[in-house]
Amino acid sequence: MAASTDQSNIAHVQVKFFTKQEQYSVPDDPFSVPSNVTINELSDLINGLIKQGSGEGRKVSFDFLIDGEFLRSSLQEYIENSGKSTEAVLDVEFLEREAAPSPEDSLQHDDWVSCVEGSNSFILSGCYDNTVKIWNTNGDNLVTIPGHTAPVKCLAWVEQDEESATFVTGSHDQVLLRWHWNPKTNSVKCLTQCKGHAGSIECVAVSPQKTRFCSGSWDALLKIWNTDSSDSTNQEADGDEHTDKKRKSDHKVSTQVPVMTFSGHKESISSARWLDDKDILTASWDHTMKIWDLHEGCEKSTLNGVKVFLDISYSTANKMVLSASADRHIRLWDPRNEGDSIVTSTFTSHTGWVTSVSWSQHNPNLFISGSYDSVLKLWDVRSPKAPMYDMTGHEDRVLCTDWSIPDLMLSGGADNHLKIFKHSQK
Questions:
Q1: Cα radius of gyration (the chain)
Q2: pLDDT by residue for the chain (426 residues), tens digit each?
Q3: Neighbour-count burial of 19, counting CB atoms closer than 10 A to its CB (0-12 exposed, 13-18 middle, 19+ buried)
Q4: Antiparallel, parallel or unpaired: β 343-348 and 329-333
Q5: Is the dihedral of CA 171, 177, 182, 187 positive or negative?
Q6: Could you tell me which of 302, 262, 261, 258 has the C-alpha nearest to residue 283?
Q7: C-alpha separations of 378 from 90, 101, 169, 259, 339 in Å
Q8: 3-state SS assignment for residue 242
Q9: Which of 137, 136, 115 is nearest to 127 (CA)?
């Protein structure tokens, strides 16, 4: 069976189709298709084969993979660029195309939304108005939490369930605060204030076992903290009367000190991620990423970039790292490799600094990115030449993203909005 064409002089290519989605299986005999066939025409061909086999069926949009990379041109262009022979049979995998994410909600803040993280049915957001907000996924603001005396730059859930939740927030005020929230009573209590940094706290991340968290700062230091209060002292904020009044509470907030401090970066640490319970990856404005060994208490290795690193995201599923950079590119790193092979792909589409990247929690091939160009993009690692979809709506720079809740993509921006996009899982 061949795709329709009225041009008899066009070269043809032998193609063998296969799929891992059994509901769409087709005969494995080679088909002769025109070399200038488009992706949409190939999709029509597959739909025709499926209908022949079942007699019924809805029309499905398909994507096509050759050698593990999505086809984004005609077969002829692919063959010319890859150096393959038109005489050979091409093995082409097809799969149902990712549905376009749909705008779900836009949550208004009083200032820039600088950080966001979802967990189960709740969302934390940090703002330049010095507050943290807790939302449910229906878009209801459950509580607004004052406490910091300067813009909130980072936050992370420690643990969260229907009965209780703890989380950490970091700020330009050089302090991290550990919080407890009771979802049933909607009451919030500050557990400890973590002091030790001498610059704005830019990032915070919780260990896989939830026993520790790390923070990176404009002071270029990485600090490790316990998630309990074993390293705290029951006293007020070291005589800082203004700060204590700003964090007014009906109980004394103990001061917590770091259990470890690492130095090595020459400029601000912009992002940190736990690779496992003993290794932490940090990214910096000094154009490097570093891996730190907590057991040995030392720097393990350095990965060199070409511009300022603004964010990183680590996937426990595929053990790969995404980096967002001021050169407008996203890079996929395999820390297990060495030399030139450590960067496996480069994703180029944004027209401004890429400020944030977030892996999907349900599909190890998918991730999102946000940029100063005000656009959120959905990517598939098998399509480095073009994003799957652009998600517009922000009217100013995108400052943060999160994809911790499988069906919700989150982004915060300098337009004072937290955008929520719905993603249909397959």
A1: 25
A2: 444 444 556 789 999 999 999 999 999 899 999 989 999 999 999 999 998 866 666 899 999 999 999 999 999 999 988 888 888 899 999 999 999 999 999 999 999 999 999 999 999 999 999 999 999 999 999 999 999 999 999 999 999 988 899 999 999 999 999 999 999 999 999 999 999 999 999 999 999 999 999 999 999 999 999 999 766 665 444 334 334 444 444 468 999 999 999 999 999 999 999 999 999 999 999 999 999 999 999 999 999 999 999 999 999 999 999 999 999 999 999 998 887 789 999 999 999 999 999 999 999 999 999 999 999 999 999 999 899 999 999 999 999 999 999 999 999 999 999 999 999 876
A3: middle
A4: antiparallel
A5: negative
A6: 302
A7: 28, 8, 27, 38, 29
A8: helix
A9: 115
Contact 30, 15 (CB under 8 A): yes
Q: Is 366 in contact with 389 (CB distance < 8 Å)?
A: no
The helix (H) or strand (E) run that includes residue 175 is none
Cα 111 vs. chain centroid, distance in angstroms?
23
**Across 27-89, where does the E strand assignment appear?**
31-34, 62-66, 69-70
Give the list of residues 6+ apart from residue 110 with CB closer than 8 angstroms, or none.
Answer: 127, 129, 131, 416
Here the tokens at position 44 are 């029509």
- Do 348 and 328 contact (CB within 8 A), yes or no? yes
Long-range contacts of 73-76 (CB under 8 A, 24+ apart): 74/35, 74/36, 74/37, 74/38, 75/13, 75/15, 75/33, 75/35, 75/36, 75/37, 76/11, 76/13, 76/35, 76/36
Q: Cα(168)–Cα(157) distance, rounded to whole angstroms? A: 6
Residues 6+ apart with CB under 8 A from 327: 306, 307
**CA atoms of 237 and 390, how far apart (whole Å):** 46
Q: Output the CA angle 311-315-320, nearest 5 degrees.
A: 80
**How is residue 197 written in tokens?**
């940094």
Query: What are the C-alpha distances in Å from 126 to residues 118, 155, 185, 406?
Result: 12, 7, 22, 21
